[in-house]
Amino acid sequence: MNLQSLIRNLIKPHKIPNKVINKIISAYNKRIYDLKKFEKEQDKIFEYFSLDREKALHKLEKIKIQFPFLNRSMSSEHEVFFSALSLSYAHINNILEIGTHDGKNSLLLSLLFNKAEIDTIDLPKNSKNFIKFYNRENNLFNFIESRDEILSKNNRIHFNEINSINLINSNKKYDLIWIDGAHGYPVVCIDILNSLKNIKTGGIIMCDDVFINKIKSDKMYKSTAAFETLNELSMEKIINYKLIYKRLDCENNSDISSRKFIGVFKKIV
């Protein structure tokens, strides 16, 4: 703890016990964490969608051996779910990705779904939000150059610089939509509603970084906005949805308060 934090805690001593308690709880949760239990739960959710997680992991591993740069810190169970879909859903021919980031997920989608056309969108490079977030401000040129190089590796990837809220004007239909743009209000709510408009009958929509517990929310990274939106749509019988764990390792999944999920949903017709 630095001097500034220590002084702040001394000024507000009532906060010290909570911090200590939270650290104890976190350490205890890590100690009792049962990875196999969560893997079994995840397997069951995959089975609900008639998907085989074990076979999906095997296919994904083969691709990452061939393309080792796809092993990255942002890898999560959404990749396994994509892999499982590619093994069981032969009709996925058109994919929309909201939030291109570094382009690696777009490339992975093109490798898993080797006949699909992938539309991927992100904010214009001169947008303040694009420059500000994800530590791009001091390395903007190199980030864009690296992203564009990765996107160019497959001619079925089509990149467009637009704010995702403009999808309200799009009538193009997709078999699979991946929502990974801004995670807070109002953007993620708009992305979910636009995706329901642009999904084909029977198509699947997935939404990254769903927080189900009360947290300090922000516009880009953390929010309960997606969870609350999915719940409202479910209660109105507009969608059926399930949550899968975003990551299963102890470090990322043992803390209940900060645990992240991926929303998987279909429109009820």
Explain this structure to me?
- The chain has 269 residues and is an alpha/beta fold.
- The protein folds into 2 domains: 1-32, no CATH class; 34-267, Rossmann fold (3-Layer(aba) Sandwich).
- The chain has 11 helices and 7 strands.
- It has a 7-stranded mixed beta sheet with strand order 3-2-1-4-5-7-6.
- Helix 9 (187-198) links the parallel strand 4 and strand 5.
- The relative contact order is 0.12.
Short description:
The chain is an alpha/beta fold and 269 residues long. It contains 11 helices and 7 strands.
Element-by-element helix/strand order: HHHHHEHEHHEEHEHEHE
Structural Rg: 20 Å
Main sheet specs: 7 strands, mixed
Number of domains: 2
Helical fraction: 40-55%
Task: Output the strand order for the largest sheet.
Answer: 3-2-1-4-5-7-6
Structural class: alpha/beta
Q: What's the CATH architecture name of the largest domain?
A: 3-Layer(aba) Sandwich
Beta strands, count: 7
Please give the count of helices: 11
Mean pLDDT: 92
User: In whole angstroms, how far apart are the ends?
Assistant: 55 Å
Helix-strand layout with pairing:
Blueprint: H1 3-11, H2 15-32, H3 35-48, H4 53-66, H5 77-88, E1 94-98, H6 104-112, E2 117-122, H7 128-132, H8 140-151, E3 157-161, E4 174-179, H9 187-198, E5 199-211, H10 225-235, E6 239-245, H11 250-253, E7 260-267
Parallel strand pairs: 1-2, 1-4, 2-3, 4-5
Antiparallel strand pairs: 5-7, 6-7
